[in-house]
Amino acid sequence: MSESQQSSSQTAKPVTAFSSLALKSELITNLDTMGYQTMTPIQAESLPLILTGQDVIGQAKTGSGKTAAFGLGLLHKLDVKRFRIQSVVLCPTRELADQVAKEIRTLARGIHNIKVLTLCGGVPMGPQIGSLEHGAHIIVGTPGRITDHLSRGRLDLSHVNMLILDEADRMLEMGFQDAVDQILAEMPIERQTLLFSATFPKQIKKMTESIMYSPKRVTVKETH
Ligand code: ADP
Ligand code: MG
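That's the DEAD-box ATP-dependent RNA helicase RhpA sequence above. Prediction below.
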């Protein structure tokens, strides 16, 4: 009897519990529903920094949970009452952008009317133009299509306070550097920038030096 009492009293709450972070209560509820019980290593390392508003470079393999790391940071920071584009997530492909948008929408369930709009190439412009006229809080898309809307004056990025470059190495491999530069030029300099990448070649290092402010670098080498 006393043995079992002792063992239960020794069960400490793991430091990787999402509830150890000061996240909006809806986010904690949604994580629970999604079956995310503890943070993955990249989430545990990067989220506390992201939540304090720092620029973060996150390096971890595919499948390590990078989407929720930046998705939670983005949703926590978002001011739902301001119906302006406040965050932009850049992804290398439409498939990845769709996955990211889906995860953000799931994480955002129950938070009053958060509008996530995807803007990717390979689909007709018409519906995207219509959606842009209705407005959004968060844009997830590929750099080419976003610059397309920018150059036609359909996208106002002047209220963006968070930029996320997801799979930055692949974006540069695909030749999106110029498009990324054009998008950056339309955003306030005073913003939080997060960059995620599986690898960290020289070109990425150079990019982080020019577009980020004193970034903290988090590297997770996972064995699985
Ligand atoms: P990455 O972007 O690093 O490749 P993803 O964000 O796509 O990884 O996540 C990989 C998988 O892990 C997804 O199926 C996602 O639902 C799941 N996942 C992410 N974070 C957690 C967590 N804390 N607990 C359980 N599953 C998670
Ligand atoms: Mg990913």
